[in-house]
Amino acid sequence: MNRHHRFASLLDIYNMFLFEVSVGILANTILLLFRVHTSFVEHRPKPNDLTIGHLALIHIVMLLAVGFISTDMFGFKDVWDDITCKSVIFLQRLMRGLSICTTCLLSVLQAITLSPRNSCLTKFKHKSAHHNQYCFLFFLGFNMFSSGHFLVSTVATPNVTSQRLMFITQSCSLQPINHILKNISLTLMTFRDVSFIALMALSSGYMVILLCRHTRQTRHLHSTRVSPKASPELRASQTILLLMSFFMVMYLLDYVITSTSGELWNSDPVHHCVQMLVSNGYATLSPLVLIRNEKIITRRLTPI
């Protein structure tokens, strides 16, 4: 009876996993294609098109890797070898790091776009678009280095039980690595999360201040019976702030679940699956938030 209940629970979680990944990949693909069409076909690029398109591409690759991991986590695929384990786990961790960095960049760029003319950020308005590609290359190099230990610690361990191995999927586990390498990787990842999230919070707070100032000006215009219309920059800023809120909530939930569960050494895979559902929620929700701001997409997706 317990075995049947366990199988039913795993099947329910797998269906939720499949739904989350499918919706996320579909939404990110729609967002990416729209940004590409706007920039290269209609030649009407927006300031953040490149960054949003890059973020959508990162989330597509990340969710594909997560979907691939889930098939082995629930035992629906053949046993993986060592190279497959290292490649898939490293790719998923790399994309997660790039997602954090690119989300932060999107918040900073929007804060620069929204800044008034007398702000010290004005000089970066025209330079920021040209420096995006250098930021992307830096993010890629930094995250490849900080996530490189997964190429060393991830091993194929089908049907192996050991207190020294940390469960990831049915075929893959994490083995203990050199103490120095572990500390370097942990320091880099902690520095990345803390610094980029702090920068994200600062830029979001700056946008909140600017939006509050705009609200006061709008009330004044209403009192003079002038009907103001929110600019595209303001609507985009509100969307970015909503996106940052989703990111913070999902990141905190992921942190709480991970920290309170302790080390997942040979633990129940159900708990690990729930943690992955939460950690990948942002990749699914973010394109829906961004699509909501695109009236052209919503009009085409909404049936007449």
Structure report:
The protein has 304 residues and is an all-alpha fold. Helices cover 76% and strands 3% of the residues. The chain has helices at 2-41, 49-73, 82-114, 125-146, 149-153, 179-223, 232-261, 269-279, 281-292, 295-301; strands at 154-156, 166-167, 172-174. It has a 3-stranded antiparallel beta sheet. A hairpin with a 4-residue loop joins strand 2 (166-167) and strand 3 (172-174). Helix 3 packs antiparallel against helix 4 (125-146) and helix 3 (82-114) packs antiparallel against helix 7. The mean pLDDT is 78.
Structural class: mainly alpha
Strand content: under 5%
As a percent range, the share of helical residues equals over 70%
Q: What is the strand arrangement across the widest sheet?
A: 1-3-2
Based on CA inertia axes, which overall geometry fits?
Answer: globular
Query: Average pLDDT, to the nearest integer?
Result: 78
Count the DSSP helices: 10
Task: Kindly provide the radius of gyration, computed on alpha-carbon positions and rounded to a whole number of angstroms.
Answer: 22 Å
Give the helices and strands as they follow along the chain: HHHHHEEEHHHHH
Number of strand elements = 3
What kind of assembly state do the chains in view correspond to?
Answer: single chain
Main pleated sheet: 3 strands, antiparallel
Low-confidence sequence ranges: none
Separation, N- and C-terminal Cα atoms: 50 Å
